[in-house]
Amino acid sequence: MSARILVVDDQPANVRLLEAKLQAEYFDVCTAVDGFAAIEAAKLEQPDLILLDVMMPGMDGYETCRLLKDEPRTRHIPVVMVTALDQREDRIRGLESGADDFLTKPIDDVTLFARVRSLLRLKTVLDELRHRESSDALSYVMSEPIGDLDSVARAVVISGDPRAATRYAAAMPAQVRTQVETDPVTGLEAARSNADLLIVDLTSPGFDGLRLCARIRADAATRQLPILAVINPGDTPSAVRALDLGVNDIIHRPVDAGEMMARVSTQLRRKRYADRLRTQLDESLEMAITDPLTGLHNRRYIASRLHQAMESSNNGGAPVSLLIADIDHFKSINDRYGHEGGDYVLRGFAERVQRDLRALDLAARYGGEEFVIVMPGAGLAEARGASERLRASIASEPFDLGDGRSACVTVSIGCAQAEDGESAESLLRRADEALYLAKDEGRNRVEAAHSAAA
Ligand SMILES: [Mg+2]
Predict the structure, then answer these.
(1) GO cellular component annotations, sorted alphabetically (predicted)?
(2) Domains of the chain
(3) Confidence check: pLDDT of 304 > 60
(4) pTM of the model
(5) Is-catalytic flag, 422?
(6) CA of 323 to the centre of ligand 1 (A)
(7) What is the band of 250 on the pLDDT scale with cuts at 50, 70, 90?
(8) Distances (CA, A) of 28 to 6, 95, 159
(9) If you measure from the C-alpha of residue 288 to the centroid of ligand 1, how many angstroms do you get, rounded to a whole number?
(10) How far is the centre of ligand 1, averaged over its atoms, from the C-alpha of 41 (Å)?
(11) Which among 13, 16, 277, 441 has most CB atoms closer than 10 A?
(12) Residues whose CB is less than 8 angstroms from the CB of residue 221 and which lie 6 or more positions away in sequence, other chains included
């Protein structure tokens, strides 16, 4: 994995040592010798990971980390604090300042690279989400602070040792509802049913926690679920295997309640952030193809689907037909009942369109009171029949306007079947000409297009 890592340390010798180790593993390394330079370098170089020394003159690592996490341009970059201290207060203070992880000097290479790989994997996922999101106008999520954990979260603790499991559960932050499981099978079920975090004990004998972690990562329903693993101090091989399996964080026994709380909060905050990015991505994808008023497809989406259907038809596939429907005298509906009344008519119209369509037909609001329906597989006779049914269904009963009133509405429709080698523009033009003929002939009518050759 080629990634750029920013190394920050006030001792040039430490910088050179880490730089050499990382470059030997083919990482791209940039460096800074104090907190201010680190923040500038992070903004400018956009590293994938920051290794940050805690003890520095001037601004220390905690303050630097806090500023990095406050700055929208650097907030998403994982920070690993590097410290000579291994006191619980220092670890907790670091986690509270927003650090993603901790390494103790002298740095053990195996642990260093396992941590780096684990955080880079996580960042790749978040970057992918951010990248897709930033192409859209709804990218405001990045300019907002991640925020504190205010709402309730669900955690599942899985351990072969019931007493240890109860102790871990007792160390959870107050807003976390915790479920304790001592059997891997029921633990896996609990994880699948809407958990926000999993704590897996890798220390209890006769209990294969690593296998459980692997199964959780292999299952689509739990692939994104954060896992915090409990291991014995000094059990570096288990820690490295766990991180390589996709475990998000490690905590050592005996578990300190304050540290557990800080690590759990970090994982939950990160998950909430990723969930929000995913939701917004889904919403923006939905918005990109849907007309917000009627819930039908929008013009851009139907145009691309029409091109696809015509291409396959031109390549010897099934025929394609097209309907253009325009609500008659819509301006006078708006004048008489107001725009709100007009919106009721548009929504009611869309409902009747959808009710009458075949499953594979695609309907879009094309603009104003104009609708386009693409009928893959349908010839002209079938399109004409569908048009007539829609016309009759619109005229059959008045539209409810939501305020006790109702309006009688009619529609005119032009339909056309795509011909060999015809372009979408030409098909739309012929259907549109048929529509204008229907309007000319007195409205509340269906007209079929003439052949393009005629
Ligand atoms: Mg130092």
Answers:
(1) plasma membrane
(2) 1-107 (3.40.50.2300), 144-282 (3.40.50.2300), 299-448 (3.30.70.270)
(3) yes
(4) 0.56
(5) no
(6) 72
(7) confident
(8) 9, 26, 40
(9) 50
(10) 18
(11) 277
(12) 192
